[in-house]
Specification:
Glutaredoxin; 6 strands; four-stranded mixed sheet; 9 helices; two-stranded antiparallel ribbon; 327 residues; alpha+beta; Glutathione S-transferase Yfyf (Class Pi), Chain A, domain 2
Length: 327
C-alpha cells in the first residue's frame, strides 16, 4: 500500500487499529455532480452534469471501482463519461496507468500514476489515492473518490443529458436500501478486507464470524424474494454483487475467508449468476484481471505473487431466480 503525504508519495501506510483490526480510511474528495450544479449532500457546488465533462479512473480488480464501472454501463453513460482503466499486473506507486491488454491509459491528464492526478488537484494532498476517482475536466480537479456517492450520481444526476436505464435508488425504497447497504458494507464488502488485512488472530476471527453470519442472513433473505429489497433490482444488489463475484476466486483463498464458497449458498450463488448475466455486465467484467490484480500486487498477503490457475467457475450457467416475481 501507499499514500501521499503533503503531495509526496510514500510506500507504506498504517491501516490497522491498535487491536489489529483493519480500518478503512474515509475518502477525502466528497463533492457531488448534480443536474444543475448546485451542491449535493455535502461539498462545494459548481459540478453540473454535462456530457463529456467528467472522467473516471478505475481498476478492473477493485470492487469499489467496479461498482462505478457497473453503473456507467447500466445507466448508459459510456459516451458521456470517459474512463481510464489501470494495469492489473503492477502497482509501482499505487494505481498505475500503462498500456496493457484490457486496460485504458489515461487520455485526459496523461498520468502514469493516479497520485499524479491527485497532486494536480491539490499539490499538498495528504491521504490515500483510491479508485474510483471522478475527475472534472472543466475545473481540473477531483470531484469525488467515494464509490457509494459516485454510483448515486451516476444513477440520477445525468438523467437530463443522455443517461438511460432504471432508477436503482427509488424514493420509496431508500430507507430499506440504506439499511441493507449498511449491513452489507460493514460485514461483507469491507468484511472480507477486515479478514484479509487483520493484524492479529483475534481481529481476524471477529471479522470472519461477522462475515459469515451476514452471508447467512443474506442467504435467508434471498430465500423468499428475488432481490435484497423486494422484487426489483436496486443499488443494494449491485453493491453486494461486486463482492460476491470476487469471493470464490480471490477472497476465499487470499483473504482466508474459507468457511464456505459462495457456490455453496444456493440463493446467493444463483443471485450472483443472475446479476452477472444481466445485459452488459459480463462485457465490462474482466475475471483474469480481478485475480491478477489481487494476487500479483498484494505481496503483503502472498509474498510470491503467483496468480492461481483455479478455480474454474462458470458464471454463465443457468440460474433459478425466475421462480420469484419481479416488479
Amino acid at each position: 500500500m501507499g499514500s501521499l503525504v503533503d503531495g509526496v508519495w510514500v510506500e507504506e501506510d498504517d491501516v490497522n487499529s491498535s487491536s489489529g483490526s483493519f480500518v478503512r480510511p474515509e475518502s477525502v474528495f466528497r463533492h457531488w455532480v448534480t443536474k444543475d450544479g448546485t451542491p449535493g449532500p455535502h461539498g462545494d457546488g459548481g459540478f453540473e452534469a454535462e456530457p463529456g465533462r467528467y472522467h473516471l479512473y478505475v481498476s478492473h480488480n477493485c470492487p469499489w471501482a467496479y461498482r462505478a464501472v457497473l453503473f456507467r454501463r447500466l445507466k448508459g453513460l459510456e459516451d458521456i463519461i470517459s474512463i481510464a482503466i489501470s494495469a492489473s499486473s503492477r502497482k509501482d506507486e499505487g494505481w498505475t496507468y500503462l498500456p496493457e491488454k484490457g486496460c485504458i491509459p489515461d487520455a485526459v491528464n496523461g498520468v502514469q500514476y493516479l497520485h499524479e492526478a491527485y497532486t494536480k488537484a491539490d499539490p499538498h494532498y495528504t491521504g490515500r489515492v483510491t479508485v474510483p476517482t471522478l475527475w472534472d475536466k472543466k475545473r481540473g480537479t477531483v470531484v469525488n473518490n467515494e464509490s457509494s456517492e459516485i454510483i448515486r450520481m451516476f444513477n440520477s444526476a445525468f438523467d437530463n443529458v443522455g443517461a438511460s436505464g432504471p432508477d436503482y435508488y427509488p424514493a420509496l425504497l431508500q430507507d430499506e436500501i440504506d439499511a441493507v447497504n449498511e449491513e452489507v458494507y460493514n460485514y461483507i464488502n469491507n468484511g472480507v478486507y477486515r479478514c484479509g488485512f487483520a493484524a492479529t488472530q483475534a481481529a481476524y476471527e471477529e471479522a470472519f464470524g461477522k462475515l459469515f453470519d451476514t452471508l447467512d442472513a443474506m442467504e435467508a433473505r434471498l430465500s423468499h424474494q428475488r432481490y435484497l429489497v423486494g422484487n426489483q433490482i436496486t443499488e443494494a444488489d449491485w453493491r453486494l454483487f461486486s463482492t460476491l463475484l470476487r469471493f470464490d476466486i480471490v477472497y476465499y483463498g487470499l483473504f482466508k475467508c474459507n468457511k464456505k464458497h459462495i457456490y455453496e449458498y444456493p440463493n446467493l450463488w444463483n443471485f450472483t449468476l443472475e446479476l452477472y448475466q444481466h445485459p452488459g455486465v459480463a462485457e465490462i467484467t474482466n475475471l483474469d484481471h480481478i485475480k491478477q490484480g489481487y494476487y500479483a500486487t498484494m505481496k503483503r498477503l502472498d509474498v510470491k505473487g503467483f496468480v492461481p490457475l483455479g478455480p474454474d467457475i462458470d458464471f454463465t450457467q443457468a440460474h433459478d431466480r425466475e421462480r420469484f416475481p419481479t416488479n
